[in-house]
Amino acid sequence: MINCFIIDDEQHAIDILVHYVKQTPQLNLIGTATNPLEALQVVTTQKIDLVFLDVQMPELTGIDFIKAIHGKVKIILTTAYSEFALESYELDVVDYLLKPIRFPRFLAAVQKAVKDINDIPSPVSDKADDFIFVKTEAKGKLLKINLADIDYLEGMKNYVAIYRSGQKTLVYTSMKELEERLHNNKFLRVHKSFIIPVNKITGIEGNIVRLKNVQAEILIGESYKAGLMEIIRDKMIQ
Question: What tens digit of pLDDT does each residue of 154-178 get?
């Protein structure tokens, strides 16, 4: 049984997570808090394994909270803002859930936490989640896509186009759904219409990011630019 705690400055967000926790046998809810400073005292003094943590809160942000506890507990971030995804990479959180959080996505994050806390090795694959199955335009057809093969993803109204070595696969899903699923595999959203694999970036020219073996111009949106530049800044020689 994993002891968990919920921190969010909005009570309705807490209520949703409490409902989810009660439906998850592996979890034992120790408590909740809308005040992160009060929660800090609880988390650092009681036996808690996992915290569901909002990012944007008054007095103490979720990012500051993580730094304050020095790795004492596992963290699953919960937020309505995708721009915090990059920083969560660096803080080694278990997962990053975008609001509104769906129960299946919640369960997937919990399973990751269970593996981390119980030190259960991932079976078969050398890399966890190194492929996905997607529904294509053909009714009843599922297609396996290796994440290493993805050049980039482009949002197209009700579909997302996945580009791989010159192939284009249309998937009936949302950019938000794929952004959540691919976050821990080093993909980054750089525009409302584009998600890219970070390791395939070859350069940046103004508001365009260049990718290995990709001729298309991948635009950088203003609201996503800071996250991308943070990655570049860490590797930049001036």
Answer: 999 888 999 998 889 988 888 888 8
Domains (ranges, CATH) in the chain?
A: 2-118 (3.40.50.2300), 131-235 (2.40.50.1020)
Tell me the pLDDT tens digit for each residue of 121-139.
Answer: 443 334 445 888 887 766 6
Annotate 109-168 with DSSP letters as a single string.
Answer: HHHHHHHHHHTPPPSS-SSTT-EEEEE-SSTT-EEEEEGGG--EEEEETTEEEEEETTEE
CA distance 1 to 76: 17
Strand arrangement of the beta sheet that strand 194-197 belongs to: 167-171, 159-164, 152-156, 194-197, 187-191
